[in-house]
Amino acid sequence: MGKKRLVSGIQPTGRMHLGNYLGAIQNWVSLQDDYESFFMIVDLHALTSVYEDPSQLRKSKRELAIDLLASGVDPEKACLFYQSEVVEHAELHLYLSMVTPLSWLERVPTYKGKIAELKEKDLHTYGFLGYPVLQAADILLYQGDVVPVGKDQLPHLELARQIVRRFNHLYKTDFPEADESLTHFPLLPGLDGRKMSKSYKNTIPLSSTPEEITALVLKMTTDPQRVRRNDPGNPEVCSVFSYHKLFNTEYSLKKIDAQCRAGSIGCVDCKQQCAALIVDKLATFREKRAYFEANPDIVDAVLDRGAKRASEVAKDTMKCVKKVIGL
């Protein structure tokens, strides 16, 4: 038997940030050796929230493709493409929407939460409500066996499984219900201490220069009870210290912990050390990114080849789908 099939996507709604890289993309890179992998830039999903002003979408898609290649997504091992280049995504989404009960969509935990979070946008549209149906189509189209997700995304994956299960029941098909591959990386705090998210505008973009990274880290929140430099601090409530846990050596981590608690290191010094660690972590990424930026034809070729491969698989699935639903 061949490799199992893995399917995942990422939205081009802004510059890819450190949280994306550590929480999802590094996982993609580690899994692409073990699975037949389909990685998509889900620009149709992006339209559910940027439909009023899509002016930056084309540029964002391009930048994200470069970021993914620089992060280690290997086109010799994985299929990388724009979702919209495979028209079967929209077609299958339509067919699945015919069999998906409205109540299933209305009880998705993140639906009302996202509307409250993005108050500046009008998200009271079918496209936003039906987002999970399009996700189900993304997975079913490639008959995915595995989907890498964080714990916060499990409800979406379970709903996708329910939709496929209902389709199988109605039409006597046997499409796979994808299993999760849990990402165990902890949520990365943003500059303000909340989860790093483009929605909160608190990210550290991967394409930032070393100087920009340093400036952003210097803005990060620390222990709110530590007012003066010599005040004892609590590293466990400090966003900066959480980065030290990820990037620093055990010896240096213990040293910073002790210095913070004793009030013998200032927050600015601690942040500068943290920024240097992040800059060093992203050194290879910056080098690869510069290469792909200087060679746009290579990026175009990768995406074209990926779309053709994805279309071949999608068309095979749609032949079966259209036959069983009577079209």
Short description:
With 327 residues, this protein is mostly helical.
Descriptive notes:
The protein is mainly alpha-helical. It has 2 domains: 5-188 and 296-324, Rossmann fold, CATH 3.40.50.620; 207-281, Tyrosyl-Transfer RNA Synthetase (Orthogonal Bundle), CATH 1.10.240. It is 55% helix and 8% strand. Helix 1 (18-31) links the parallel strand 1 and strand 2 (36-41). The protein is globular. It starts with a strand and ends with a helix.
Order of helices and strands: EHEHHEHHHHHEHEHHHHHH
Overall pLDDT: 92
Distance between the termini: 32 Å
Class computed from helices, strands and strand pairing: mainly alpha
Overall tally of domains: 2
SSE arrangement:
Elements: E1 5-10, H1 18-31, E2 36-41, H2 43-50, H3 57-71, E3 78-82, H4 88-97, H5 102-106, H6 109-117, H7 126-129, H8 131-141, E4 146-149, H9 154-171, E5 179-182, H10 210-217, H11 239-247, H12 250-262, H13 267-281, H14 283-294, H15 296-324
Parallel strand pairs: 1-2, 2-3, 4-5
Helix pairs in contact: 3-14, 4-8, 8-9, 10-13, 11-13
Task: From the structure above, extract its key features.
327 residues, mainly alpha, Rossmann fold, 2 domains, three-stranded parallel β-sheet, two-stranded parallel sheet, 15 helices, 55% helix, globular
